[in-house]
Design goal:
Number of helices: 4
Shape: globular
CATH class: Alpha Beta
GO molecular function, one term: metal ion binding
Distance between the termini: 38 Å
Mean pLDDT: 90
Structural class: alpha/beta
Bound molecules: guanosine-5'-triphosphate
Low-confidence stretches: none
Strand order of the largest sheet: 2-3-1-4-5-6
Catalytic activity: GTP + H2O = GDP + phosphate + H(+)
Number of strands: 6
CATH topology: Rossmann fold
Protein name: Ras-domain-containing protein
Family: Belongs to the small GTPase superfamily. Rheb family.
Keywords: GTP-binding, Hydrolase, Lipoprotein, Magnesium, Membrane, Metal-binding, Methylation, Nucleotide-binding, Prenylation
Radius of gyration: 16 Å
Strand content: 15-25%
Length: 188
C-alpha cells in the first residue's frame, strides 16, 4: 500500500436467529476454519483487511447473539454500522421469517427506509431445505438488499457475502472517496 493511501474502515453487524450459522460464516471468513460443534455466541468482534475495487478496507465484523422476535435490537448493532449481514438458514422457515423482523427493527431504530444489507441463506450443503432460492431472492428484492446462499461448512460463497455487503455500502457512498454514512443513526 502506498504511504499516502489510508485504509478505509467499515463496520458490519451479522444478525439473525439462533444457530443459523452466523459464527460459522464469520469464522470461515476471518480464519478459514470450520467447527461442527455449536457454541452460542454472546458477541464477538473481528477484523480483516479486504480489497474491493482495488482499494483496501479494514473491516470490523460484529458476530452477534442470535435474535428472536422478542429480542430488543442492541443499539451497538445499529449505531455506527456501515453494512448489515442478515442470516437465515435455508433449513429453517422460522429463521427466514426472522429476517424481515430484524430488518424492520433496524430501519425503525435508525429512522430510515432502507439499509446497506446482504441477506444470506446459509447451510445450503444440507438437504433438508425449507426455503427456496426464489423466496430468498424475492425477500431481498422487496428490501432492496443483496442476496446470496452459502455453506460455511464447504466454504461456499463466504467471501462473497462480505464483498456484497461492502458493495452495498460503497453504492451509498456519494463520491466513493469519503466515508459513507454509518447507518445514519444519531444518538440524542
Ligand atoms: N451443515 C452445515 N452446518 C452449519 C453451517 N453453518 C453452521 N452450521 C452448524 O450450525 C450450528 C450453529 O452454527 P453457529 O455458527 O454457531 O450459529 P450462530 O448463528 O452463530 O448461533 P448463535 O450464536 O446461537 O446465534 C453449528 O453446529 C454449526 O456447525 C453450514 O454451512 N452447514
Amino acid at each position: 500500500m502506498a504511504p499516502s493511501e489510508t485504509l478505509k474502515k467499515r463496520k458490519f453487524a451479522v444478525l439473525g436467529a439462533r444457530s443459523v450459522g452466523k459464527s460459522s460464516l464469520v469464522l470461515q471468513f476471518i480464519d478459514n476454519v470450520w467447527h461442527e460443534n455449536y457454541y452460542p455466541t454472546i458477541e464477538e468482534h473481528f477484523n480483516k483487511t479486504v480489497t474491493y475495487n482495488g482499494a483496501k478496507y479494514d473491516c470490523e465484523v460484529i458476530d452477534t447473539a442470535g435474535q428472536d422476535s422478542e429480542s430488543i435490537l442492541n443499539a451497538k448493532h445499529a449505531i455506527g454500522i456501515h453494512g448489515f449481514v442478515l442470516v437465515y438458514s435455508v433449513t429453517s422457515r422460522t429463521s427466514f421469517d426472522m429476517i424481515q423482523v430484524v430488518y424492520d427493527k433496524i430501519i425503525d431504530f435508525c429512522g430510515v427506509t432502507d439499509i446497506p444489507c446482504v441477506i444470506v441463506g446459509s447451510k445450503v450443503d444440507l438437504t433438508t431445505r425449507q426455503v427456496s432460492a426464489e423466496e430468498g431472492q424475492a425477500l431481498a428484492k422487496t428490501n432492496k438488499a443483496a442476496w446470496v446462499e452459502t455453506s460455511a461448512k464447504n466454504n461456499l460463497n463466504v467471501a462473497k457475502v462480505f464483498d456484497l455487503v461492502l458493495g452495498e455500502v460503497e453504492k451509498n457512498s456519494p463520491s466513493q472517496q469519503g466515508d459513507p454514512p454509518a447507518s445514519r443513526c444519531l444518538l440524542m
